[in-house]
Design brief:
three-stranded antiparallel sheet; four-stranded antiparallel sheet; 137 residues; alpha+beta
């Protein structure tokens, strides 16, 4: 979990601290994170919580999401979107999954900055314990 602080005059908050929490589920992790934030910020209103990143796959309160990355290619008189990679991440919600996938994709061999996330979808049911990550090329 990151603790964010918006410096005076800044447009965006910046990472001011990182906290590792251990909790039995997502709600307890959020409570512990909010307590750490209150302890760190005092009365200053410029602090906020960053993204909660589960360190353990299949942690209680999280779900597996698949982010599909695509790139645009020139095809005569038009551009065509082509799926190039998918990345599976465990997250509390789709927005967190999108952020995690964007971080994870940078570690993939052959990654190109022009790749964009086309879709983030929750993966449920059978195969939920399947492999993480994978290419489409």
């Amino acid at each position: 979990m990151t603790l964010l602080r918006r410096p005076p005059g800044a447009r965006r908050p910046r990472v001011a601290a990182r906290v590792v929490l251990e909790a039995p589920d997502l709600q307890e992790a959020r409570r512990a994170a909010e307590a750490a934030l209150d302890e760190r910020s005092g009365d200053e209103a410029r602090w906020s919580l960053g993204m909660l990143r589960p360190l353990t796959p299949m942690a209680p309160g999280t779900h597996r999401y698949r982010a599909t990355f695509a790139r645009w290619e020139d095809d005569d008189d038009r551009f065509v979107r082509i799926d190039v990679h998918h990345c599976d991440v465990w997250a509390a919600d789709a927005q967190s999954a999108r952020r995690l996938a964007q971080q994870e994709i940078r570690k993939v061999a052959g990654y190109e900055p022009s790749w964009r996330i086309r879709q983030v979808a929750r993966v449920d049911g059978t195969g939920a314990r399947g492999r993480v990550g994978g290419g489409l090329r």
